[in-house]
Amino acid sequence: MDYENNSWIWDGVYYYPHLFGGIMVTAALLGLSTSYFGGIGSFHKRKSGEKKRVRVYMDGCFDLVHYGHANALRQAKALGDELVVGVVNDEVIAEHKGPPVFNMEERLTLVNGLKWVDEVIPDAPYAISEEFMNRLFNEYKIDYIIHGDDPCLLPDGSDVYAAAKKAGRYKQIKRTEGVSSTDIVGRILASSRCRENGEDHIVNGEQHQEESQSEDSHISQFLPTSRRISQFSNGKEPGANARIVYIDGAFDLFHAGHVEILKRARELGDFLLVGIYSDETVREHRGSHYPIMRLHERSLSVLSCRYANEVIIGAPWKVTKDMITTFNISQVVHGTVAENSLKSESDPYEVPKNMGIFRLLESPKDTTTTSVARRIIANHEAYKKRNAKKAQNEKRYYEEEKKYVSGE
Fold first, then answer.
1. pLDDT surpasses 80 at 364
2. Which of 240, 257, 350, 353 is an S-S bond match for 365, by CB 3.0 to 4.6 Å?
3. Secondary structure of 323-391 as H, E, C letters
């Protein structure tokens, strides 16, 4: 028998060496062939060689990928050595949650761009059946299935991960508070209502009070800490002779276009430094209803990307000679697709252009923050239903949990 067909034996040998050692001795005394156990020599080689790598699996829709998704994947990776991520397709998402904002290709680009991800399975099922679970264990060699502590329910109210829990191969991580795709959709729709009503309309009368309370529910609840930033950081400095490439932007509603342009920029050097504009700078140049995501939220999204080595949190609009000298920047790049500035002023890249170190990169995608927001606004009724449906399912879940705990 070969190693693959006897993986259960090898796992036993690895985790219970004394027990299996006794079995091998008994087998020898009885004259049984050790070939049944896959070859004792191979075992010694593995034991003295590298340790068995633990593979963990996490799935999701990964629509409107934000730092909460990234933090979940970071936590999942910490529970093993290799992280395999399943991405649900567009049709299944539409059936269970409503229309996705990003299509399958865009979501795969985003997930593949996250630095904790080792492998991606496209078209993963929404619910983990026993059949798919066995496929994960046997074909993909998954040791554990991971999910957050927030409820994930089917339309009938049953737990998506019931099979994995029953099999004893389920591990849970803590949900990242302060952000969700539902929350981000709410922020975008609230911002759209503000623009439609106009500033003067919002600041007067009872309608202002009602709408401002609604808007408050969609204000970012994220509280940045140095610990969270350090968890996302690479912690590596560029080498003495490293070629440092600099790219800047708002990186609001982090999308596949951002991933692709960061990838291209990174390929031009040894170290990619990303400047992220402050909230005030974004408002000044893009309008008072931007950014949708706050500075530290946007910073974590960029830090989670495998192509970004370091970020400047609150980078200036203009690239200066002092910046170039301080960070030892070899090249400054900018994509051909970007949001237009509301202010007509001098070129923010005038200095690097005069120094001959500026390069305009062809953007692989024409996606912008505005175009993403327009997708959501165009389907706002569907997203409102999606949000309401999720809230209803979660309410039912917590009511059932409460009954179970109280023994009702």
1. yes
2. 257
3. HHHHCCEEEEEEECCCCCCCCCCCCCCHHHHHCCCEEEECCCCCCCHHHHHHHHHHCHHHHHHHHHHHH
